[in-house]
């Protein structure tokens, strides 16, 4: 069994089960991507809460695993070649777990790359834009007198929802009948946009019927329901 004690992060978050994949996270739209994925594929793991209220993400121990200071991050004691693999960036983690287990990423080369293009669409567009709407609509940005930033991000979010709507029309999932990491990457963000951020009316979400139906299908999955609350908030 790999010795995880050489990784500084285990000093702050000791591994009770060092033989298992270690997840360091918080149930944010980015964090739940990985917890949902792990629940979907059934890979045993141990979870550690990274408490933003305590600035855990800024500690030297966490930075040693993710120099970008963001969640989620993982430490897999059974990485490639049987060696431990520390990994950050939610999109990279989703792809790694899919390739490690052979699940939720098509084996056909063309469909594999098509899935990855939607994953990158989320990483480069949906996440950053929806997150900015949250900041300017719900958090500190709502007090800014200049409403042009909010307008810009609302318009871009509506455009992205339009792209999703056009693609999902007549489809169950982003890859037709195949539920994949592309869907997992986006579920938490769309849920947050209209739920926690309270921006449903702002982006006129009701007009995006196919996106709404896709979201309902995704949220109905038991693994998604579990993953959305992992790790439990303090």
Folded structure, characterized:
- It is an enzyme of class 1 (oxidoreductase).
- Belongs to the GST superfamily.
- Its EC number is 1.8.4.-.
- A hairpin with an 8-residue loop joins strand 3 and strand 4.
- Helices cover 49% and strands 8% of the residues.
- The chain is globular, with a radius of gyration of 18 Å.
- It contains nine helices and four strands.
- The protein is of the alpha+beta class.
- The chain has a four-stranded mixed sheet with strand order 2-1-3-4, with helices on one face.
Helix content: 40-55%
Oligomer: single chain
- Termini separation: 31 Å
- Quickly count the helices: 9
Specify the structural class: alpha+beta
Average pLDDT value?
97
Let me know the number of strands.
4
What overall form do the CA principal axes indicate?
globular
